[in-house]
Design the sequence.
């Protein structure tokens, strides 16, 4: 690794919600920066105004906040290298695009869309191996390399539509190094003269990306493998500007793959299999379509960070659960693999279940109380904490607490028909009446004492323990579910327990 200060950037485009592939890119940048006591920047790459989506920028910012990955520099927290929104840096790009033209590494092109289509069609008809605008075809096109200098000046002065293209060298091997993939060699004959500056006055990704990374002193570019084909151009741009000695190191992350089949994980996969692919819920401003988010689906940010970290990165140890601090300590780009990693939605739930169990009952009770409030159920936190402790082992999300514990808050008025048929016998009312009398006489209404008294009654009367307890649970809960029965009794209290047993005697089987 080079000796300069580590500065990395996450540079998403605000064209919609942030995909979890982008979240992993942000996470790896964050971990790398923090591991090396460096800076993590958030830069908004909004040069493609046609695809700009209202609200997407704030969505990106909010997602990083929820995940606990705060940028050291951003639109909201600017440093000395701003602005951090590319649409506010237009003058910078104009100057640098012109610099490339002046030093012979770029040129003005005035070809219309129709002329470009005609060029491609002609190449296809000729069955040419060349199918793009490059060193072989530019001599036949309308650009500042083929037109008289005076005509070029007149066209520019008349504001005629033009783009600025990079002048790709002919038949030159470009060797670039990637931290994850090693040396990559590409011949320039396979590359086209990419547009660097568009007719709308905005730069393309390629120009803006290189200029901003240089001016913001980015030391390492960590991004998805979809940008690997652009790496030779970016290296040539650094050389064209004379910035080769300050070029960052590159690392291209492997894809996150579908749970089933081939290809990159998409929203369609999530919709089909019922899991989110976005960190937060997203409402499309044009269609009003709502897409699920991990936050709203009940996932904890540390669980999502943990599973994403293990998609492509292998710490080399058996351990699977890592705090953000531990991930930071262990992370290295050298342990990131080249191959794509398959996303497993069931494994994601398993991670969340682990983190739920690790949370304190007090914190979980506060979250559960919010759910209870939506149901107009009032309960003190001490009671909610006790209930949480009993049901969290069976839960994956906080939202699971309600179906696991609704009977703590609502007296059963109906009884599960299958359980009634299987567990409620002819003698059950008489036995439950006897248990009710025992319960009425217990003053120290604790789980242990209740269990001792009731089980003594069952043993002394030589009754079937399982049969009695099943009927007893049905009377208290209304179904064959719930944690330890005597813990339930202690929490709902004597009066409620007596009421439920009396209701069961009157109503079950009637």
Sequence:
């Amino acid at each position: 690794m080079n000796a300069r200060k580590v500065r990395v950037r996450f540079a998403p485009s605000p064209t919609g919600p942030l995909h979890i592939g982008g979240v992993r890119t942000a996470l790896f940048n964050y971990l790398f920066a923090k591991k090396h006591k460096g800076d993590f920047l958030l830069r908004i790459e909004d040069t493609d105004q046609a695809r700009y989506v209202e609200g997407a920028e704030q969505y990106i910012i909010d997602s990083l906040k929820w995940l606990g990955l705060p940028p050291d520099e951003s639109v909201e927290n600017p440093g000395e290298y701003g602005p951090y929104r590319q649409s506010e840096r237009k003058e910078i790009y104009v100057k640098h695009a012109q610099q490339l033209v002046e030093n012979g590494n770029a040129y003005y092109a005035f070809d219309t869309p129709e002329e470009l289509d005609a060029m491609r069609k002609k190449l296809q008809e000729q069955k040419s191996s060349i199918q793009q605008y490059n060193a072989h075809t530019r001599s036949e096109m309308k650009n500042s390399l083929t037109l008289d200098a005076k005509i070029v000046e007149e066209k520019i002065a008349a504001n005629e539509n033009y783009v600025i293209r990079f002048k790709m060298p002919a038949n030159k091997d470009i060797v670039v190094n990637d931290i994850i993939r090693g040396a990559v060699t590409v011949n320039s004959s396979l590359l086209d003269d990419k547009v660097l500056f568009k007719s709308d006055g905005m730069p393309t990704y390629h120009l803006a990306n290189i200029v901003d990374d240089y001016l913001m002193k980015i030391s390492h570019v960590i991004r998805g493998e979809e940008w690997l084909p652009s790496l030779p151009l970016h290296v040539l741009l650094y050389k064209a500007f004379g910035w080769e000695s300050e070029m960052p190191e590159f690392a291209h992350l492997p894809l996150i793959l579908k749970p089933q089949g081939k290809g990159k994980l998409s929203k369609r996969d999530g919709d089909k299999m019922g899991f989110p692919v976005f960190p937060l819920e997203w409402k499309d401003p044009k269609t009003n379509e709502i897409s699920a988010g991990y936050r709203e689906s009940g996932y904890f940010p540390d669980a999502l960070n943990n599973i994403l970290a293990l998609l492509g990165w292998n710490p080399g140890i058996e351990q699977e659960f890592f705090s953000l601090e531990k991930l930071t300590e262990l992370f290295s780009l050298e342990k990131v693999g080249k191959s794509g990693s398959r996303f497993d939605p069931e494994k994601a739930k398993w991670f969340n279940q682990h983190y739920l169990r690790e949370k304190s009952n007090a914190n979980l009770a506060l979250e559960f109380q919010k759910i209870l409030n939506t149901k107009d159920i009032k309960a003190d936190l001490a009671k909610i904490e006790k209930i949480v402790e009993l049901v969290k082992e069976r839960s994956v999300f906080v939202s699971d607490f309600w179906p696991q514990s609704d009977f703590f808050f609502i007296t059963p008025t109906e009884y599960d028909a299958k359980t009634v048929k299987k567990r409620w016998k002819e003698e059950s009312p008489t036995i439950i009446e006897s248990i009710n009398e025992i319960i009425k006489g217990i003053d120290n209404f604790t789980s242990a004492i209740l269990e001792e008294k009731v089980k003594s009654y069952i043993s002394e009367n030589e009754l079937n323990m399982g049969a009695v307890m099943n009927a007893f649970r049905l009377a208290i809960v209304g179904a064959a579910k719930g944690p330890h029965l005597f813990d339930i009794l202690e929490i709902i209290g004597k009066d409620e327990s007596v009421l439920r047993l009396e209701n069961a005697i009157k109503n079950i089987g009637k």
Remarks:
- The chain is about 45% helix and 10% strand.
